[in-house]
Known about the structure:
alpha+beta; seven-stranded mixed sheet
Amino acid sequence: MLGTIGIPTANAESSGPLPSCYSQPAVSAPGIDAVKQLKQDYFHSIDTKNWSDLKTHLAPNVIVDTTGSAGPIFPDRESFVSFLQLTLGGAETHHSGYDPQLKMTSTTTAAGVWTMEDVLIFGDTFGVHGYGHYWECYTNLNGQWVEQYSKLTRTRIDLINPDGTVIQADAPLDVVVQKFHEATGL
Length: 186
């Protein structure tokens, strides 16, 4: 959602095929609860600005695609977490994920879609109330579940005042990006 700020992208296309983990057959679900906890911890780490904890929820070579929110594609966790620190570090944020559609694709991999909602307040200037989905793949590395791939898609973004009142409902993404740049100087 924040436009380009000098971070290289792996691929500027926001559409296209999902990773192969989505085409794997479903197997038993012993890791589903662990994946749900992982996503809850991921949101908590972002909202509390605990960047070192956030890194523990991401594979070192995670691919994070934020093109559906006017951002880049990140080829690893370091670049993604650095981006979040820069763009959301000074913001008040609240992220929610619900209605997970998860499946185990092997004993150490899973894939799923989360319905998401977030509120991002940038000081006393403005905020956004966004809606969409996370399309994700997970892997179990050394006994710990981590995100291996994440693609954020947006279905709606409302521009809001810091008190939550709506400035513009269902704002076009380019208007949101312009407002962000004006408010943050990024």
